[in-house]
Design a protein that fits this description.
It contains 12 helices and 5 strands. The protein is elongated and about 80 Å long. The N terminus is likely disordered. A 5-stranded antiparallel sheet has the order 4-3-2-1-5, covered by helices on one side. With 297 residues, the protein is α+β, with helices and mostly antiparallel strands. Helices cover 57% and strands 9% of the residues. Helix 1 packs across helix 4.
Amino acid sequence: MAIDNLRVRISGVQPVRQSFFRVFWRSVNLALVVSALMLVYSAGWEYSVRRYLAGFDEAIIPTNASPEQRVEAILSWMRSGPPRSTEPNPAGLAARDPETTLNYQQLLSVCGTATNAFLNLARSADLQVRRLLLLSPDRRAKHVVAEALLDGRWIIVDPTYRVVMRDAKGEMLTRKQLQNPQTFAEATAVIRGYPPEYSYEKYAHVRLARLPLDGLRLRPLLDAIVPRWDEKLDWSLLLERESFFVLTMAAVMTLFLLLLRMLLGWYADQRLHVPRFRLRSTLIRAGAAFFTTPEIK
């Protein structure tokens, strides 16, 4: 009697599991289709942005220019380029869209978006560049600059003031050199109105404090596990270009949903023993039917 009752309970649970599985299976398939469409769309978006930036570089950078000349050409365009559009309400502008940051005066006057504009053009011109956030003692961002790899050294470029940081002898400076108060004073003395608080004692490439709950205190943990993690990977493109960020997220989501679908397929076959739509076998049969020469009787 007890065995019969157990069988009844199991037989009652199985249809519920199958019904729940079918709902979840269809939801995952729908999400996979949406993420795949988003991946295709974002890939096209990123491609169009790259084409736009390549055309921009061709217009402002001389052919066969050296890396240093490419940096100076971009800064020269930012300093004295053609008249730019203005917007009565710049808060509504897309700060991470290169086509916007390169064409609005207000965005080229703010350190974050001016640096984004420089980084996008520099990367399109085959330069190795990355963003650098200058931090206050409480680790709040006080200014944003760029680093460019020139002659094997990460040189500081300040796109907001359209300058490469140099000492009194005209030598290009790294962030380590600018941590010296005397060198910093020499470099900024020739830049009109340069705030002395934009110093280099504290800095970061990625500001995790902007995440909820103060970045979940991830930075000390990451620093302990992988020292200098924010320099080992180039985070700038994810942070400065919306199209690339969407493309990356779409690719990650598509991969995750594909793996989840494979796991659900295994569960359906090995645990639930329910029939399901098999995309691969269906495509194989469709391909065979399409390419097979029909028999003439």
